[in-house]
Amino acid sequence: MAYNFSPFVLVFFLFTTSSYAISPGEINAICKQTRNPSFCVTLLNSKPSANFVTLAQYTINVAHDKVIDTINLINSLIKSADNSETKDHYTLCLVHFSFEGALGQVLYTQEMLKKGDYEGVNVGASGILTNVDDCILGDSPSDPRFPDPSMLPKYADVVDSIADIILSISRYLVH
């Protein structure tokens, strides 16, 4: 069975599907809500012609990859730790980045996005931020910050920035 589409229908279809793409102004508005707007703009502009849901999925995937990279780094830091305080710090960070922490929150965020539960996406992104902060700053405000000379704080900052972007996108998805 052959289908004949008029040029009008084709133009209408192309117009309506492309109209859902996020504009540069919307990307700027999303990124202004983050702590690192230039990082945000660079990341979001790497996925042109995306709508909000596609952009959220892309950003969640990037977060997943960066969390895995951070877990790999932490595992190597644990192996090379030269004292028990350092090893304890990295072991605690591993918990905050593993399935019980940031990785679990990334997977939860993906699940919520697939279900269309955009408030759940917001909650998941907040959970990622909390776990990253607990690794770097400690579980309690009274905990002294560990003087970490490794690359872990930089890796954690990237994950934190990406989770912040997901949080900002989720606000647009909710409305």
TrEMBL record:
CDD domains for this protein: PMEI
GO molecular function: pectinesterase inhibitor activity
Domain Pectinesterase inhibitor: 22-169
Protein name (database record): Pectinesterase inhibitor 1
Protein keywords: Disulfide bond, Signal
Family membership noted in the UniProt record: Belongs to the PMEI family.
Domain of life: Eukaryota
